[in-house]
TrEMBL record:
Coiled-coil residue windows: none
Transmembrane segments: 213-235, 256-281, 293-315, 335-355, 367-386, 407-430, 442-466, 487-511, 541-560, 581-606
Organism expressing this protein natively: Rosenbergiella australiborealis
Domain Mechanosensitive ion channel MscS residue range list: 630-695
Subcellular location: Cell membrane
Domain named Mechanosensitive ion channel transmembrane helices 2/3: residues: 587-628
Lineage: Bacteria, Pseudomonadati, Pseudomonadota, Gammaproteobacteria, Enterobacterales
Family statement drawn from the similarity comment of this UniProt entry: Belongs to the MscS (TC 1.A.23) family.
Record protein name field: Mechanosensitive ion channel family protein
């Protein structure tokens, strides 16, 4: 409860600071709001000007070769689109107002109706209709302009991506050469630019302390310090209190607290940077290059906060018992500085690149900044692995066991290889490639760490919400009137859906985003383009398409197998389906899933379906010659899975083969015989031949033993002996009761047949053997013999003439 009081005190302090901040912001914006309200935009004048600007941007894009200039043109295009959208938003209310006025005037009277209206009304309606047509035309032009801007922005993004690929392959000189370090001691081109930017930055600070802004600057600065120093700590303690007192016991507490640590750190750093930006760069007279740099730093604070938050959540040095991954305490304390260092490096060097773009530095200075970034990140990767291994050795020397998972080993290997490759690229002169790899390893780490925490939070939340013993689970049961089995099925279903969604988003972000060249809007645009299928209009077998197809195939196979395992292990066992039905559903899903993965792979490689006539022709020829049996068995397998005349677990007899169906595959069915051998039967035989299914419809089996007795036996006594042997056997069912039938009376003897039922067809053979032993023993004790088979002996006697 003390944590809650601390948070309440902090909120009161922030609220006390908010009132003067609001007043200061209102004073700061008074002049701007008055000037904007006084300025009226004429769409008839602005739309042609905006179209001219768009045409100029299009003309410049085709001639620009510099990445910085492309970024500036993209920003100009985005700003132009925002202006067009603002113009549309201002024209739509005017058009609605004209519609309301026309509705008041009503429709024009029809000729010959005898209704006349005054000239003033007619003139007013004509003016309103003309104004309505003009506004609609202007709205249409503005929307067309906005669509053109969106298309141009997408083209610029694709062009920048292609330029980045080309830049990566350029050799700009080794970091060991004097030319690389020249910007530090001899930079006549960028030196004056840096001095001028420093003057602009100094002027921005002076403007922030000018009359009317001084108090607001101080308050924003104090708010930034409070958020960073106290807000993160108290908010984290408050969320820990919520986790302990409000959440159910179990893994959900740890996963919730880990995500809370990451989020609070992210919010604290982001808000702190935003408050500092408002403190020192909110004046309208701040230079454009300073404003652009501050805006870029605010965006970079999101990445820095995310890196620092994920690192703190992973290590959790303040609460070791709540640590989500299995990490030794000494190892966690040793790794504690690295997330902060990585976040600081990303923030500084991304800010340095934004500074280079803001003042348009030379190529040598830009290459120097990129190389220094890659060098420090590579050294940091190697130092992290070296420190980790040293701590592990020290712990081992102390006699303590260090649990090291396979994933940790893979991470160490990846960091070592990445660091060595970056250093090699820097030495041989490929600075662009080294920079790309350095930011890529950070981006991959961010994505996998975020996926790890979200995956744990989703799984633990589903286990609690859909648990029959938890309060949320009981509430769901009462609210929706569900059974406990249905609740468990819903838990498995939602857990699988969320896991699949997280995996898909992880794959999309890995393939379509990187912090070295993309903003959140660019990453989102690439994801939308991926779903829209753009770029697959032609059959282009280029390396990037092949790599994309390979990634799609591997990811698709992984997703299909994960869902299949989830269906087989988690979801279907909680249903009322029998084993055969579950296996059939899993097999059918696997077949359809693999077909879809194949289609997606062909799409990713650039295959267009309306141009696949040659593939269809080739398949038809192949089916006619060699694939006929394969296709027939495949179709028969689908029929077996859907109609289910036989299913996994059934006891069948086909072509003299009797055994249990073990698996129904795409081409053939596996039958397990009693001697544990397996017979592979093509699926088409189950469709075209007679099949005996002993377990279909009725699972019980019948044991029948025919016996032949001599004619002089007592039938009643023999009947009692046989029924007694059957009744005393535990496997014989009481209902229906065993019976003895008089089958035949012949010269060989009396033929009796005794019958009993067992619970399964698979018990017939063993039960029959036991009963035969028991019947023979009881007949021998009663001195009753079975009828001996009669034989005819033909004896040839010698003739009398042959006698001597």
């Amino acid at each position: 409860m003390s944590s809650f009081k601390k948070v309440s005190t902090l909120l009161c302090i922030l609220f006390a600071l908010w009132a003067p901040l609001t007043a200061v912001m209102a004073d700061d914006n008074t002049d701007q709001s008055s000037s904007s309200s006084a300025t009226q935009v004429d769409p008839a004048v602005e739309l042609p000007k905006m179209q001219v600007v768009l045409d100029k941007i299009k003309g410049q894009v085709s001639d620009v070769t510099d990445e910085t200039q492309l970024g500036e043109l993209n920003d100009m295009a985005v700003e132009l689109g925002e202006n067009a959208n603002t113009l549309v938003q201002s024209l739509v209310p005017q058009s609605q107002q004209v519609d309301a006025q026309l509705a008041v005037l009503g429709p024009a009277p029809q000729p010959g109706s005898g209704v006349k209206e005054t000239a003033d009304v007619t003139t007013k309606r004509r003016q309103l209709l003309a104004q309505k047509a003009r506004l609609d035309d202007q709205i249409k032009q503005a929307n067309a302009l906005q669509n053109g801007v969106n298309v141009l922005s997408s083209q610029i993004l694709n062009l920048r991506r292609d330029r980045l690929k080309n830049q990566v392959s350029l050799n700009t000189g080794s970091v060991l050469s004097a030319k690389f370090w020249q910007p530090l001691y001899n930079n006549p081109i960028d030196g004056p630019k840096i001095v001028a930017f420093a003057d602009d930055l100094k002027q921005s600070v002076l403007l922030s302390f000018s009359p009317g802004y001084r108090f607001g600057t101080v308050m924003w600065f104090i708010a930034a310090v409070l958020v960073m120093a106290l807000g993160r700590r108290y908010m984290e303690e408050f969320l820990a209190w919520v986790s302990i007192n409000k959440l159910s016991e179990g893994r959900l507490r740890r996963s919730f607290l880990a995500c809370a640590i990451a989020v609070t750190t992210l919010l604290a750093i982001t808000l702190c940077c935003n408050f500092l930006a408002l403190a020192f760069a909110r004046h309208p007279d701040v230079a454009d290059d300073v404003s652009d740099l501050v805006s870029s730093l605010v965006f970079q604070s999101v990445l820095a906060g995310l890196i620092a938050g994920l690192g703190r959540a992973f290590l959790s040095t303040r609460r070791p018992s709540w640590r989500l991954p299995v990490i030794n305490d000494d190892l966690a304390k040793a790794l504690k500085p690295f997330p902060i260092v990585v976040a600081t490096l990303v923030f500084i060097f991304q800010g340095l690149e934004a500074f280079n773009r803001a003042i348009e530095t030379s190529v040598n200075t830009t290459i120097f900044g990129n190389g220094l970034t890659a060098l420090l990140i590579a050294l940091l990767c190697l130092m992290m692995v070296i420190r980790t291994r040293r701590i592990r050795r020290e712990i081992t020397v102390k006699g303590e066991d260090v649990e090291r998972s396979r994933i940790a080993g893979l991470v160490d290997i990846a960091l070592i290889l990445t660091g060595i490759i970056i250093l090699i690229c820097l030495v041989i002169g490929y600075v662009g490639l080294a920079r790309y790899l350095s930011y890529e390893v950070i981006w991959v780490g961010i994505l996998f760490s975020t996926f790890y925490f979200l995956h744990a939070l989703v799984i633990d939340s589903c286990q609690v919400i859909f648990s029959t013993n938890s309060a949320p689970g009981k509430l769901v049961i009462r609210s929706l009137n569900l059974s406990e089995k249905t609740l468990l099925q819903l838990g498995s279903l939602f857990s699988g859906l969320f896991k699949s969604a997280l995996i898909i988003m992880l794959i999309l972000l890995l393939m379509n985003g990187t912090i070295s060249s993309s903003s959140p809007s660019e990453i989102l645009s690439r994801i939308i383009d991926f779903f829209a299928g753009r770029g697959l209009e032609k059959l282009n077998l280029v390396p990037s398409h092949v790599i994309m197809a390979l990634v799609t195939f591997i990811a698709g196979i992984y997703v299909v197998r994960s869902i299949r395992n989830w269906l087989d292990s988690d979801f279907l066992p909680q249903t009322t389906m029998d084993d055969g039905m579950r296996v059939s559903l899993v097999t059918l899903f696997s077949n359809i899933g693999f077909v879809l993965v194949l289609l997606m792979t062909l799409s990713a490689i650039g295959v267009q379906w309306n141009k696949l006539a040659w593939i269809v022709s080739a398949l038809s020829v192949g089916i006619g010659f060699g694939l006929q049996e394969i296709v027939k068995n495949f179709i028969s397998g689908l029929i077996l899975l859907t109609e289910r005349p036989v299913k996994v677990g059934d006891l069948v007899t086909i072509s003299g083969i009797e055994g249990d169906i073990r698996r129904i595959n795409v081409r053939a069915t596996e039958i397990l015989l009693t001697d544990k051998s397996t017979v592979i039967v093509p699926n088409s035989q189950f469709i075209s031949q007679n099949v005996r299914n002993a377990t279909m419809g009725n699972a019980q089996g019948v044991v029948t033993i025919p016996l032949t007795f001599p004619l002089d036996i007592d039938p009643v006594k023999v009947k009692e002996i046989l029924l007694g042997a059957f009744a005393d056997n535990d496997k014989i069912l009481d209902t229906p009761a065993p019976s003895v039938s008089f089958k035949d009376l012949s010269a060989q003897g009396i033929l009796l047949s005794v019958t009993g039922n067992v619970s399964s067809q698979r018990l017939i053979s063993s039960t029959r053997s036991e009963l035969l032993f028991e019947v023979l023993v009881r007949l021998r004790e009663a001195r009753i013999a079975l009828s001996s088979p009669q034989t005819m002996v033909i004896e040839q006697k010698p003739l009398e003439s042959d006698n001597p």
